[in-house]
Each structure stands twice: as structure tokens, then as C-alpha cells.
Design goal:
The complex is a heterodimer of chains A (about 375) and B (about 500). In chain A, about 25% of the residues lie in helices and about 30% in strands. Chain A is α/β, with parallel strands linked by helices and about 375 residues long. Chain A has 3 domains: about 110 residues, Elongation Factor Tu (Ef-tu), domain 3; about 120 residues, Rossmann fold; about 90 residues, Ubiquitin-like (UB roll), CATH 3.10.20.30. Chain B has about 500 residues and is of the alpha/beta class. In chain B, α3 crosses α4 and α4 crosses α10. Among the domains of chain B are: about 150 residues, FAD/NAD(P)-binding domain (3-Layer(bba) Sandwich); about 130 residues, no CATH class. The relative contact order of chain B is 0.18. The radius of gyration of chain B is 22 Å and the shape is globular. Classes of the chains: A alpha/beta (about 375), B alpha/beta (about 500). The interface between A and B is large, with 63 and 75 residues.
Chain lengths: ~375, ~500
């Protein structure tokens, strides 16, 4: 009987200790509150639109103080946000690198810079339709691209093509504000002088002669003050040190030609980082397949062209499929392929995802009729 | 939509509960907010590396001869997973104690080494081993509902109200040996003078007699297997389903999602901390339950740095599977040193040592972890968040390099840093706690188990790492089994 007594005593002791505490409702800890501030979606207002070039605009987005997201999450230079808009009755998203100084997020401001793309559904919509005062929903900042003070070397070479300049503008501000202690040289290649985004900022930063420098090369015209043509060994050589980190953002051709160049300088793989923001795929023969989307409570069958991703087809049909990076990287859109074959371009799949028929619809092109399980 | 049981969260506890209920032909629905199962048992990709977020040692699995409870349950459910043995291969360093020891080989080897270090430890350690078995068997009996434990398990009764430190002193272990063997407190998150001896003994028992294993494949492979089996058995799992409210209805509970969808069941099983559920999901006030949570102490939170290195572990001279550095081997003293950002305690694991396929050829994964006690993170806000994380990670890497004389920095190809906020955001664990409510004093696993019936909230049950048995995949998984067995038994009784 001693057993029972001892165990009962232990229980009683616990009961008494608990009874000595308050019955008041539980409160959030400091970290609980900080964590709750981080949302998946932020409601913002377009507070300024600046024309950078005839086909590029920078949109200043400020947290909507009257919404449930009065403050914006911090971000690291190089990260992107995904904007949510409705175009032609279709809910669509696009990811854009943040071009503003990370410190502006402390004032609840993000800036994105958008270039008009031929037939670009969202870029055209943004450039032609969005006005100051409009509301815009955006994702929390995401992505791993950018400078990392632990991983990276002190000498940073950034290579930007066209609108690929945007993450480096943010990085330049971060360095100038003292967030990172490194030397940044940005090689920025554009077609003509007219295409230079952030022309004024670049000139001002170059005048400061600090640890950030922009070198602009024009590929389609020769003009004083600029390099001419594609990047060459000779152009890069003066800026390469013993240890370097190379960051690249631009079209795929740029990466291909740069990789050859970087090999000549013996820059190791671990020191070269890319931002993917294009998914390029041309099927041999164009056709349209059926895409059956099995959702939690309903099933819809929609057409899907083989030169567009499953995500795009679903968006056009008005299905609110989840998406974030739209280049196969982040895995946010992952869904199960129940039937059919797809061509996946550059998806960063976990090993077990691949073995369990998971695909990233944002980079999957149909190769047959498809049945997709979508968890919405 | 009506179910017998709704499970909120497909972490280890939720998956385990789902397996047992589906296995017993119950109509069960699991609601998971993320797009993959597993909770903290997950992976993420960076470049050519796939990192396991938390699971490296699957405790209580055992070998073919010494089957642990996890392996027994997997066999019952017809689940096959590929595992690899984890040898004893840990390096422990303590600054104050001027100790730098490698525990390697078989258990007998390091018992001999212990004797060399602390004369007299061998005989008392050997006499501890049968005691661990006795306590384990007593716990098995207790979980099965047996009352008369004192006849067969006198030592269980003798030590049930003692803390680990006092019990080990009572068992004549030299003080230095107690502190060295007690290093395992860092995996439980409670100092030895607050950790109940039964909890400590059970952990030691599993560690010595039911050796942990590593998964051959990444942990998502494992969690997807569990999820698939649940579905094969007729259970349903809905992903991207964030629960925002649990409501009472006439005949049970209503569970409401963020998109407004409603589900009904007679019972709800939460793979979430009681604190979170009371605070966020149940709108009515339950004073008794609040009181229990107000009485509890939140466990430590931490920072984890995941590194993908571009050299083999041999080239890097990372010869040990696990590394520990302490300021002081005395857990009470050591925990005090963790009340600030910069301190010396760290843990490291090199999965490649037990699994050549942990990362691509000629690369290594190194995961560093440190813990913080108290309100250390209260100085961090959105303005200094990223910078703080980077500075802390950098200090942790440098601490590892200088403690073990191994160069790491120049080989970093990929790096990711997880803070308490990262963990809290992903799993809703309170305050980013690594170990749920701290197991201490009156609130060790043994106390939660003894008072379980009296403290229940009608039709709401808790499983997972914040529940009955405490943190760890083994405890979380076992809680899912234990709680659902209770529920099934009650069903049978009421029929």
C-alpha cells in the first residue's frame, strides 16, 4: 500500500503546485508576438510610382495601416516578394526582387521595379493599370539569393542583365548603409543607355567612390562613359581578387557565357550564386491537353497548353493554386501528380518528393493529359 | 463532414495517432497547415544539399535483437523503413572541467574509460544498468494500468520522487561521473536537479539498450511513408489546412479552418502544445487548464545553423558523429551561462559519419545548435533580426572551430540559420521552445502520466513533443499511440 500512497502523494503535490498559480487566460510571450507579426500575405498601398525608363517603373508599396498587416516583415537584400493581382478575372501572381534598401522595411516600405515584357500579362497590367493609391497584396519576402556575410568573400562581383539589376540595387544600399562589410562591383549589361534602370542612383553611388561600384556595359550601342559589348575577361580581370564571390541575376544566356569566363579565373563552384527568374521551355510541337485538378471538395477539368505551366493554366481557369517563387525553387506550390507526364524545368525537388510523384506546377509543362491533386 | 476523430497537425504525434486510429478502422481526418507531413521532422533544400531540419537519431528504435517501441509499432503497422546503426562516437568538451573526451566503440570501452577518469565509477555504473531496466519495465507496467508496482519494481517506487542528480548520488556514482553521463540533459532540456530520475533513467535506458538509428533516406521520405500508410488504412490527410478554432457542438467538436471550412468529430486530438490550443483555438475560458499552463516553465529555445560544406568529412577532419561543448559539465551551472546570447555551449552533428549518402560525394553536412535560457531573444526586433541571426551563427561557427580545432568557414557552400521564430512559425510551438514545457520538478513526464486522467479536457487530447512524454521523435510518436490506445479502450468499454 506504500506504493499507492507514494504515487498519490506525488499527484497531490502536483495538484497543489498547480493550484497555487493564476487561472487567468494565457498570454503571448514576446517571441509569440513577434512571430505573429510575420504573415503569409501583407496588404499594401501603392504610394509612389516612378518611371525609371520608358518601359520600367518602380512601385513603392507601403503597409496598409488600416489592415491586419500594419507593419511589413524585414528582408535581406536579394529576396523577392510575390504580388497577387487579378487580371482578366484570373488570380495571378508574380515574383519580383525587392529593389529598395532593406532598412526601408523598418518604415514598412517595399519597392519593386518592373520591366515591361512582351505579352507579359502581369508586367503590362502593372505598368498600364496600377495607380498611386491602389491596394496590392504581396507575400512575405522569400528567397535565398544574395550576399551572405558568413559564406561569402569580401570581394563581391555581381553580374546583372537587364532587370536583373534590381536585387543588386538593394544590396548596394545595404552595403552603403553599413549592413555588410564588403566590396561590391556590379557589372550591369543593358542594350542601350536608354535601358539603364536606376541611372541617377548609379551615377551618384559611383561618385561617392565608396565600396560599391557600378560598371555599365551597353551591348547594342557605343557611348562615352560606358563599356561596349558583352562582358569579357579583360573587363572583369581588374576586379578579380584572390578570393571572390560572384552573384548573377539575368537571363540564362548570361549565366552560360559567364560560367565559361569564371572557369578561366578558377572561381570555385561554392562561390558562384545565381538567381533564377526565367523558366524557358519550347515544346517541339504545340498542343493542348486536359488538366484535371482534384481539389479537397471539388474536381475541375481545364485545358492546358504544352507551352505553358500547369500553374498558368490553373490561374487562367480561375483556380487559386498556391504559388510563390514561380521558378521551381521554393516548393511552395508542390502538388501530387496522380496521372500523366510532365516536363519539369529546373525544379528543386527533395529526393522523396521526386519518388512520391510530387511536382512543382510552376515549372511543369504537360506532356500528356494530367490529373493533379491540389491541396486547396 | 463527420469523423470519429480529427487530428490537428501531422507531426510525429499526429501521424502516430492517425496510424493507430486508422489501423483500428476509425474514421479519421488529419489537418496539416503545411504542404508535407512531419512537422519539425522535415527537410529543406539549399543548392545541392538537402538538410534534415531536426531528426538525426531515431531513439527507441533498437536493433533486430533489441527491438525498441518505435520499431515494434512500425512492424505492427506494416511499415518498413531503412535504417543505419549509430555507433557511440561522441566528443564532449567542457571548458571549466578542462575535459575533452571521445566516447567511442562499445559501451564496455567507455565504461573502462570512465573508470580511468573517475576511479570507482565502473562498479556503480554497472549496478545502474539493471536499475534502468527495472524502471523501464515498471513504466511499461504503469502505462498498461498496473497498480501494484512495489512488489516487482521496488526501485521504481524508491526513486520515483527523486531528481536525477540526487538519485545518482544515492547510487554512489562519483560526482564527476554523474556530470559526464548526465550530458544527455542537453537533449532533454532540463538540468539534472530538476529532471526526474525516472525520466532520466528511461532516456538512458533507450540510449544504451535500444540504440538509436539513423534514417537511410531523408526524413521526408520517412514522414511520407507514414502518411501513405495512414491513407492506405483509410485515413484522410488534408494539407494546407490551418485550423483557427475548435468549438463545442451538441454531439462533439467542430473544427474550423482559416478558409471557413468546418469539420465535425466526437474527439479532437491536437498535435500542438496545450498552451497554443488554449490560447489560440478554444475561445471559451477553461480556468483549470489555464492554471496548469500558467504553472509551467517554458523550455529553452535555440539557434540552429545548417552548413553544406564542399569537402568530405575526412578531409575536414570531422571524425566524430556528435560534438558537445559545455561551459561546465554541471547542468545547473551550465544552464545559467545560457541566459545570454554569447556563451560557449554548443552541439554539433555530422550525419555523413553514419550515412555516406547524407550529402553529395565530397561534401559534408554539419549542423550546429545552441540553446538559450530565459528571455534572451526579447532584445530582437525586425530591425535587427537578420543581423542578430547572422552574428550569432557566425559566433557559433567560430566557437566550433576553436573548440575542436577544425576549420569550417572557408568550406561553406550553403548556409541556413533557424531561429526560435523560424521554429515557432513552422510548427506553432510556443516561444520557439525546443522541448515543449520544461520537464522539471512536479512536471516531468512521470508526473504528467500519473495525473493524466484528472487533468483531461473533455474530448480534446494532446499528442506530440509538447505532450505527456516530452520532446523527441520517440516520445512524440509514442504519445500518439498511447493516447489513441486510451481512447480506443474507452470506446470498447462504453460499448
Amino acid at each position: 500500500m506504500e506504493t499507492v500512497e507514494k504515487l498519490e502523494k506525488i499527484k497531490k503535490e502536483r495538484e497543489e503546485i498547480i493550484a497555487s498559480f493564476s487561472k487567468k487566460p494565457l498570454e503571448d510571450t514576446y517571441l509569440d508576438k513577434e512571430t505573429k507579426k510575420i504573415k503569409s500575405i501583407y496588404h499594401t498601398i501603392v504610394t509612389d510610382i516612378k518611371e525609371e525608363t520608358p518601359d520600367v517603373k518602380t512601385f513603392t508599396l507601403t503597409a496598409d495601416k488600416n489592415s491586419d498587416t500594419p507593419s511589413l516583415a524585414p528582408f535581406k537584400a536579394g529576396q523577392y516578394i510575390t504580388i497577387h493581382v487579378t487580371v482578366d478575372n484570373s488570380p495571378v501572381t508574380r515574383a519580383y526582387s525587392l529593389s529598395s534598401a532593406p532598412s526601408l522595411a523598418n518604415k514598412d516600405i517595399y519597392k519593386i521595379t518592373i520591366k515591361r515584357v512582351e505579352n507579359g500579362l502581369v508586367s503590362n497590367y502593372m505598368l498600364d493599370n496600377i495607380k498611386v493609391g491602389d491596394k496590392l497584396d504581396v507575400s512575405k519576402p522569400a528567397g535565398d539569393f544574395g550576399y551572405n556575410p558568413i559564406r561569402d568573400e569580401e570581394n563581391v562581383i555581381a553580374i546583372a542583365g537587364g532587370s536583373g539589376i534590381t536585387p543588386f540595387m538593394s544590396l548596394a544600399w545595404a552595403i552603403l548603409e553599413g549592413t555588410y562589410d564588403c566590396n561590391l562591383t556590379v557589372f550591369y549589361s543593358v542594350k542601350t543607355e536608354e535601358d539603364i534602370i536606376f541611372k541617377k542612383e548609379i551615377e551618384e553611388i559611383n561618385k561617392k567612390k565608396k565600396n560599391v561600384k557600378f560598371i555599365v556595359t551597353l551591348t547594342r550601342e557605343e557611348k562615352e562613359g560606358y563599356l561596349h559589348g558583352h562582358l569579357t575577361r579583360e573587363m572583369l580581370e581588374p576586379y578579380i581578387k584572390e578570393f571572390n564571390t560572384v552573384l548573377m541575376c539575368g537571363p540564362k544566356e548570361l549565366y552560360r557565357s559567364m560560367n565559361e569566363l569564371l572557369n578561366e579565373f578558377n572561381i570555385p563552384r561554392k562561390s558562384v550564386h545565381y538567381e533564377n527568374f526565367f523558366v524557358e521551355y519550347e515544346p517541339d510541337e504545340k498542343t493542348t491537353y486536359n488538366l484535371k485538378v482534384v481539389m479537397k471538395e471539388k474536381v475541375e477539368t481545364i485545358p492546358c497548353r504544352n507551352d505553358e505551366t500547369l500553374l498558368v493554366a490553373m490561374e487562367r481557369a480561375g483556380i487559386k493554386a498556391p504559388s510563390l517563387c514561380r521558378v521551381g525553387e521554393c516548393g511552395y506550390c508542390r502538388s501530387r501528380l496522380l496521372e500523366g507526364k510532365v516536363k519539369m524545368i529546373g525544379a528543386s525537388l527533395k529526393k522523396a518528393e521526386a519518388e512520391n510523384d510530387y511536382i512543382h506546377p510552376c515549372v511543369s509543362f504537360p506532356d500528356s493529359d494530367i490529373v493533379l491533386k491540389l491541396d486547396i | 463532414m463527420k469523423y470519429d476523430y480529427i487530428i490537428i497537425g501531422a507531426g510525429m504525434g499526429g501521424l502516430s495517432a492517425g496510424l493507430n486510429l486508422a489501423y483500428n478502422n476509425k474514421k479519421v481526418l488529419i489537418l496539416e497547415k503545411n504542404s508535407l507531413p512531419g512537422g519539425l521532422v522535415t527537410t529543406f533544400k539549399r543548392g545541392r544539399f538537402e538538410f534534415d531540419a531536426s531528426l538525426y537519431d531515431l531513439m527507441d528504435y533498437g536493433s533486430e535483437e533489441h527491438i525498441g517501441s518505435l520499431q515494434r509499432l512500425f512492424k505492427k503497422y506494416n511499415l518498413e523503413i531503412d535504417t543505419l546503426p549509430i555507433p557511440y562516437n561522441i566528443r564532449i568538451k567542457s571548458i571549466d572541467d578542462k575535459l575533452d573526451e571521445v566516447m567511442k566503440g562499445e559501451i564496455d570501452d567507455w565504461v573502462l574509460r570512465l573508470e580511468e577518469l573517475h576511479s570507482g565509477s565502473m562498479s556503480s555504473f554497472r549496478s545502474l544498468l539493471p536499475l534502468l531496466k527495472e524502471i523501464h519495465e515498471a513504466l511499461v507496467a504503469l502505462k498498461k494500468g498496473r497498480n501494484n508496482l512495489e512488489k516487482d519494481f521496488p526501485n521504481f517506487i524508491k526513486y520515483v520522487d527523486k531528481n536525477a542528480y540526487d538519485a545518482l548520488v544515492d547510487l554512489n556514482l562519483p560526482i564527476d561521473t554523474i556530470h559526464l553521463l548526465g550530458y544527455i540533459w542537453i537533449e532533454i532540456g532540463s538540468p539534472l536537479n530538476k529532471l526526474n530520475f525516472i525520466d532520466f533513467a528511461e532516456c538512458m535506458y533507450k540510449y544504451i539498450f535500444r540504440r538509436p538509428v539513423a534514417l537511410q533516406n531523408k526524413s521526408i521520405d520517412f514522414t511520407l511513408k507514414l502518411a501513405k500508410r495512414i491513407e492506405e488504412l483509410g485515413g484522410k490527410i488534408n494539407y494546407r489546412s490551418l485550423v483557427t478554432e475548435i468549438k463545442d457542438t451538441e454531439d462533439g467538436k467542430e473544427v474550423i479552418l482559416s478558409d471557413g471550412t468546418k469539420y465535425h468529430a466526437k474527439d479532437v486530438i491536437c498535435n500542438l502544445s496545450e498552451r497554443y490550443v488554449l490560447k489560440e483555438l478554444i475561445k471559451e475560458n477553461i480556468p483549470q487548464a489555464n492554471q496548469k499552463e500558467n504553472a509551467r516553465t517554458l523550455s529553452m529555445n535555440g539557434l540552429v545553423v545548417y552548413l553544406g560544406l564542399n569537402k568530405s568529412y575526412q578531409d575536414l577532419k570531422l571524425y566524430n558523429y556528435r560534438y558537445y561543448e559545455f561551459q561546465n559539465l554541471n547542468s545547473v551551472v551550465n544552464m545559467k551561462s545560457m541566459k545570454k546570447f554569447y556563451h560557449h555551449t554548443l552541439e554539433a552533428v555530422v550525419p555523413n559519419i553514419v550515412n555516406e549518402q547524407a550529402s553529395p560525394k565530397n561534401t559534408t553536412i554539419l549542423v550546429l545548435k545552441t540553446l538559450y535560457s530565459g528571455d534572451v531573444w526579447n532584445s530582437v526586433n525586425k530591425e535587427n533580426y537578420y543581423q542578430t541571426k547572422e552574428e550569432l551563427a557566425n559566433a557559433l561557427i567560430e566557437e566550433f572551430e576553436s573548440a575542436f580545432h577544425i576549420d569550417i568557414k572557408e568550406y561553406i557552400e550553403e548556409i541556413e540559420i533557424a531561429s526560435p521564430i523560424t521554429f515557432e512559425r513552422y510548427t506553432n510551438n510556443i516561444n520557439g521552445c525546443m522541448f515543449g514545457p520544461m520537464r522539471l520538478g512536479y512536471d516531468n513526464s512521470i508526473h504528467r502520466l500519473l495525473s493524466y486522467e484528472e487533468e483531461r479536457i473533455p474530448h480534446i487530447h494532446f499528442v506530440g513533443g509538447s505532450s505527456l512524454f516530452g520532446s523527441g521523435v520517440d516520445n512524440a510518436f509514442y504519445s500518439g499511440y498511447y493516447i489513441t490506445e486510451k481512447l480506443l479502450e474507452e470506446e470498447r468499454r462504453s460499448e
